[in-house]
């Protein structure tokens, strides 16, 4: 007997919109436009010859009949995912994960590790947007947002995955050319600043007991990643976040001129909308962040490399 089934793409859009209570959030989850979700829902309403949502200004509400329909078909999608997984095909295959992270973290920590994530999970595409806007100011919906913390935001779950400290860093070639054995030696150096982080150097100099030190020169950049790149290129000495320069320290592109002090900093955290917290792919990615953060923490927890030889 031939089965009578509605259009499956339309059914998928209806299930997401009904479960999330929003066409916009359904579009974000399915990685289509708001208009595409509306068209699919309208097509399903035409196929069923019955309304599914009541439009109330900017909100949509399920009709009583549509709520009963969703209660029946919703578990079927979960059963389908579980059955697919049991037969050896990952339920997350061909899915896209949307991530928003601050630019310097993305460039110096996340991007170098994404190739490893793709090797471990070849069926997952990660779409990364960079932004320094506060989480509550973001206009789009993302699966995972990476910001400093820990902070509490209504409607989001938060996990710390990478702690951070800041210390002076510079290129080995520059340190050979112009030695710096104690903090007071910074009087002969160029200190590199970032306009959005004006307190880094003053706070560190105060901890190093040279609060009134005047360097030979200062240079200020509008983006933190430019400040760090200037340090790699031997322009001056920057306040480097240990987690984000660990690879450069290991490769010898940067060195630590002093053993301390280390300036405490905000940790890196994953913030996940509550409606996405149970998503298997979101949980997979956040668990991967925590594993990579632990590896990075273990790598940088010991005493920093000694100064390069000045002989």
TrEMBL record:
<keyword id="KW-0238">DNA-binding</keyword>
<dbReference type="InterPro" id="IPR058163">
    <property type="entry name" value="LysR-type_TF_proteobact-type"/>
</dbReference>
<dbReference type="InterPro" id="IPR036390">
    <property type="entry name" value="WH_DNA-bd_sf"/>
</dbReference>
<dbReference type="InterPro" id="IPR005119">
    <property type="entry name" value="LysR_subst-bd"/>
</dbReference>
<keyword id="KW-0804">Transcription</keyword>
<protein>
    <submittedName>
        <fullName>Transcriptional regulator GcvA</fullName>
    </submittedName>
</protein>
<dbReference type="Pfam" id="PF03466">
    <property type="entry name" value="LysR_substrate"/>
</dbReference>
<keyword id="KW-0805">Transcription regulation</keyword>
<dbReference type="Pfam" id="PF00126">
    <property type="entry name" value="HTH_1"/>
</dbReference>
<dbReference type="InterPro" id="IPR000847">
    <property type="entry name" value="LysR_HTH_N"/>
</dbReference>
<feature type="domain" description="HTH lysR-type">
    <location>
        <begin position="6"/>
        <end position="63"/>
    </location>
</feature>
<dbReference type="InterPro" id="IPR036388">
    <property type="entry name" value="WH-like_DNA-bd_sf"/>
</dbReference>
<comment type="similarity">
    <text>Belongs to the LysR transcriptional regulatory family.</text>
</comment>
């Amino acid at each position: 007997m031939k089965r009578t089934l509605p259009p499956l793409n339309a059914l998928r859009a209806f299930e997401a919109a009904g479960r999330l209570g929003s066409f916009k959030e359904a579009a974000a989850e399915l990685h289509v436009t708001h208009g595409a979700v509306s068209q699919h829902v309208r097509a399903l309403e035409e196929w069923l010859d019955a309304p599914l949502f009541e439009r109330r200004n900017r909100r949509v509400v399920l009709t009583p009949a549509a709520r009963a329909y969703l209660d029946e078909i919703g578990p079927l999608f979960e059963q389908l995912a579980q059955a697919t997984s049991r037969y050896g095909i990952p339920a997350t295959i061909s899915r896209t994960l949307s991530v928003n992270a601050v630019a310097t973290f993305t460039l110096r920590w996340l991007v170098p590790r994404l190739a490893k994530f793709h090797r471990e999970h070849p069926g997952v595409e990660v779409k990364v947007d960079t932004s320094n806007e506060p989480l509550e100011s973001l206009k789009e919906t993302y699966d995972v947002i990476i910001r400093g913390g820990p902070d509490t935001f209504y409607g989001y779950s938060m996990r710390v995955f990478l702690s951070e400290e800041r210390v002076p860093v510079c290129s080995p070639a520059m340190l050979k050319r112009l030695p710096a054995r104690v903090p007071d030696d910074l009087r002969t150096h160029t200190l590199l600043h970032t306009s959005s982080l004006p307190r880094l150097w003053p706070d560190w100099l105060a901890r190093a007991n040279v609060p009134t030190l005047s360097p030979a020169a200062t240079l200020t950049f509008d983006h933190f990643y430019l400040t760090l790149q200037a340090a790699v290129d031997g322009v001056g000495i920057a306040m480097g976040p240990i987690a984000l320069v660990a690879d450069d320290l290991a490769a010898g592109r940067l060195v630590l001129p002093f053993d301390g002090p280390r300036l405490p900093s905000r940790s890196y955290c994953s913030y996940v909308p509550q409606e996405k917290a149970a998503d298997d792919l979101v949980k997979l990615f956040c668990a991967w962040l925590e594993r990579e953060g632990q590896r990075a923490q273990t790598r940088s927890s010991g005493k920093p490399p000694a100064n390069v030889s000045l002989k």
